[in-house]
Amino acid sequence: MNAYKFLFHERPPAGSAAPAVGKIAQIVDWLNQSFLSTESDGTGGMTPKKMRVPMSPRLGTVGTVEPFRIKEPVLRYVVRACALPVEAGSEASELPREFPVLLVGADSALAKALRYALEQQGYSVRQLIPGTTTYRLDPQRVVVDLSAPAPVRAWRRLESAHAPIGALINLMGADYWADGGHVGKPVEGHGPIPPTRHLHDARALFLLLQVVEDDLMASAVHGGGRLLIVTRLDGRFGLARSRELDACSAGTLGVAKSAAREWPAVTVRCVDAAPDIMPEALAPRLLAELQGRGDAIEIGLTTEGRWNVDLHHEAAPRQTPIGLRLEPKAVLLVTGGAYGITAEIACALAAKYQPTLVLVGRSALPDEEDEMTRDIPAGKALQQVVLRQLRAMNPRVPVSQVMATTRNIIKERRIRANLAIMRGSGAQVEYHAIDVRDRTAFGELIDGIYRRYDRIDGVLHGAGVVNDRLIRDKTLRSFNTVFDTKVLPALLLAQKLQPKSLKFIAFFSSLAGRFGDVGQCDYSAANEVLNKLADSLSYSWPHVHALTINWGPWDADMVDDGLRRLYAARTIQPITLADGKRRFLSELERGASGEPELVITSSMRQIASLQARR
Q1: Rounded-to-integer distance, Cα 200 and Cα 183, Å
Q2: Nearest to 356 by CA among 259, 293, 422, 286
Q3: Does residue 512 lie in a domain region?
Q4: How many Å is the Cα radius of gyration of the chain?
Q5: Most buried of the four, 21, 25, 155, 403, by CB within 10 Å?
């Protein structure tokens, strides 16, 4: 469960500035006031108080906390945009003028207006314009290839003679709308084609942040260190459900929110401006956000005022209203394979609906297990058998290879068992070993399903990988693998699915998408794209139940005893498999609500408290 290790990172060193945390502190206050009186929804009892435990992530400091003695409920939160009072503007904190401001994005009307506003206030502005090659237009403007590390580093060396950058303003997610661009038109019989103009913005921002981190940190000591990300979804981060969205531009939001967690001294602000605000009117409002020092990371701007993003707890009804029904033999496409959380959900779908399940995974379908290990239970006994087998071939076999082989045996057992459970429940099951990043192979599979069954009733997109590294240490290859595994198949699904026969499309996201995460700028970026794609499809396909669930940690196959002890030490209650499956089926049966972005987790009070402390 690397996706949740952000819960255990230490606080920043003493003296470093506290990062912006949005409304999280208010969530803590609300939960402290209401948690004990909240009526149980049947998933468990209440916990009376938070245990006092050390904050160190080292297992040696955890002590003898008994894991999960007190069961907490799994709660549901709806992500909404809330209007800020007029007086709730950010407290002004002027950016020192000795540090230049870097504007990133096309030389659009908005870029020109913002540059003029900055220069009128005495700031030195340098402009970086994305291109396919790198060359200088004039002393202040340079075109840079942002697709690879080498040209980005070359640009930074050219700029090394100047003072450290005091602020980076990213307009890559805003330039298209600013100059009157529009999203793709629908294709006959299909939904809207998700625009891909901004598909690579998150990657470009990641590469830039790698080379300007030291600058922002240095200028932060003197009052600088600002990172401002601008998108133009709808002025409410896509939560107004009023238009088709350029969801790919939201990837920069995930990168920025993760940067805020890694760089507590840097002030990070994500601003989503409504497309109908003219550049000349928007520029001074963006400058005000750049100079603000408020707590909120996410601020929306519309002609009506300012907005922020908040979580609203909604108690589950004692009996879920049936807004969506699936008939037996409904055709369901599931990405994420036959192992892990997605497979557990597929087992639940099989048991309830007896559908036709088309499973897609990276792993090849395993053969029968070797008879030498077939009857050996998981644990030390299995490890010893594997060790003897491998030593027979290589007496100096490393321990890591033994552990990896053992894990693979256990994983293949789980795959066989899951497929047997699904079929035993009455489902018809297909399994396809496909890399979902392969547009041709995955696209042919989708087309083939329509040819064979003439329909796809529902889609669960749970495929995803993580590879945790700080921004400064992460490689481009790693970023692309994590980001593309979630985003590319989601975009292809939105293009190829036929909404006329589709009943639901569900994306599996995580708390990393909602809050950002240390070491997971790529994963957070990918999940934010999925969140906004669900918002967009909810608008474009109103009769389809489009939803994205930002899950809290699960107590599933990938959680070992060490991580369980860490959770227990912080009274973080992972979602049990039974609770998680029940919650998903409940959300599915609700049907379309017009509010597709959800957070489902237990222990939100504790998680929010850990977030707020940073």
Answers
A1: 16
A2: 422
A3: yes
A4: 25
A5: 21
Q: pLDDT digit string (tens) for 400-452?
A: 999 999 999 999 999 999 999 999 999 999 999 999 999 999 999 999 999 99
Lookup result for tokens 């959680």: 559
Same-domain pairing of 324 and 295 = no
**Does residue 410 fall inside a structural domain?**
no
Which residue in the block uniquely carries the two structure tokens 């699960």? 554
Nearest CA among 597, 585, 447, 586 for reference residue 537: 597
Q: Which helix (H) or strand (E) holds 291?
A: helix 279-291
The strand pairing partners of 144, in sequence order, are 130
CA distances from 410 to 406, 416, 429 (A): 6, 10, 21
In a shared domain, residues 339 and 270: no
Tokens of 566: 């860490």
- pLDDT category of residue 318 using cuts at 50, 70 and 90: low
* Tokens describing residue 42: 């049947």
User: From the CB of residue 40, how many other CB atoms can be counted at a distance below 10 Å?
Assistant: 13
Three-state SS string over 353-373 comes to HCCEEEEEECCCCCCCCCCCC
What's the one-letter identity of residue 511? L
Q: What are phi and psi of 519, to 5 degrees?
A: 80, 0
Q: With contact defined as beta carbons under 8 Å apart, do 104 and 175 qualify? A: no
The SS3 call for residue 367 is coil
Cβ atoms 560, 548 nearer than 8 A: no
Nearest to 325 by CA among 573, 545, 129, 148: 545
User: From CA 489, how far away is CA 360, in angstroms rounded?
Assistant: 11
Of 31-35, 82-86, 168-172, 447-451, which gets the smallest average pLDDT? 31-35
Q: Are 413 and 373 in contact (CB under 8 A)?
A: no
pLDDT band at 315 (very low <50, low <70, confident <90, very high): confident
Instruction: Provide the domain limits for residue 429.
Output: 319-365+417-556+579-602
Q: Which helix (H) or strand (E) holds 493?
A: helix 476-496
- Cα–Cα nearest to 274, from 310, 230, 227: 230
Contacting residues for 179 by C-beta, under 8 A, at least 6 apart? 106, 108, 109, 110
Q: Which residue matches tokens 């007896």?
A: 354
CA distances (Å), origin 349, targets 108, 345, 380, 412: 49, 6, 34, 21
